[in-house]
Amino acid sequence: MRIIKLFTLCILLLSCSNDQGQRNPYLQEIGFRFEVNLNLPLYSPLTNPGNAVYIGAQGVGVRGVFVMNTGFAYRAFEASCPNHSPSSCSTTQLEGQTAVCACEGFEYSLFTGQQLSVPQDGNRYFNMLEYRAVQSGNIITISN
């Protein structure tokens, strides 16, 4: 019986992982809250699945936020390119369902936030920073 307990303890200790992922060193995570009213013409594209809008209001994210209607839920991502420090060219541009960084041309899916066509140069690349997006009626609350 003692051997079984010892074996179980060893398995539990060895199966624990300290890998919590690496935090993006380029983007600070700031606290904010912003409400998107889908009744307003500015945000009406979000009523259709597959559409995204850029919100560049002061205090919303580092360089603004992209909000995407995936068809199942709303997702919100930081508009600053996640693969270098914020600079004059680091605000990604909305191109359909993709965000494109003007600095290097990196492209990111607004459905998932993942970088498309990751360079195979051995460097660490980050996906877009995602914010919380909660819908209540015609209001989407974006927050961090």
From TrEMBL:
Domain of life, per lineage: Bacteria
Signal peptide residue numbers: 1-21
UniProt KW Acetylation keyword: no
SUPFAM superfamilies in UniProt: ISP domain (SSF50022)
Keywords: Signal
Record's protein name: Rieske domain-containing protein
